[in-house]
Amino acid sequence: MEALNLIEVLRRAGANVTVGSVEDTLQIVTRHHKFNLIADVMMEQAAKNGVRSDRHAVHASMSMMLAVYVQGGIPGAMKFTSTEELVALLKKQAEAGRNYGAICASPGYVLEPHGLLKGKKATSFPPVAYLLTDQSACEYRVVVDGNLITSKALGSATEFALAIVEKLFGREKAVSVAKELVFT
To answer: CA angle, 160 as apex, 158 and 162 as ends, to 5°?
Structure first.
């Protein structure tokens, strides 16, 4: 659901969103409630073509990665942390000072073990927040620290998506999309 929420909010903001998969096929079955999603590209293809990516969404933008965001869920986060192409994209983003982030269990299972939270404040799904070296921002639903955006879980997914919209398109666009969603 976090991926669907992010895709929807980004598209409402005008982002060109293409769905990609870290699975073995283009068919993505979300692990918790078995939602089916058909991806447009595989992660390997997305990484090769220089697009920006999150768990199930790959966002093309003028051949330059503007943002990489990883969705959550413990089973998904375990898969993502071992997906070399995704980890490499996240590291490139961080090193280049470009936007990246994660929601739910992924800050702890994906970003932290790969050194992507070093010197940054982040939040995470409460049962896995102990995985974060710096837990000082874990009380917050969404945390923006420079080019890093993290969020707790599905309940904060719309706030997470709107924080990304604000980072990519500005406050005015984020407020406009929030009003369209009747979120404000």
So the answer is: 70
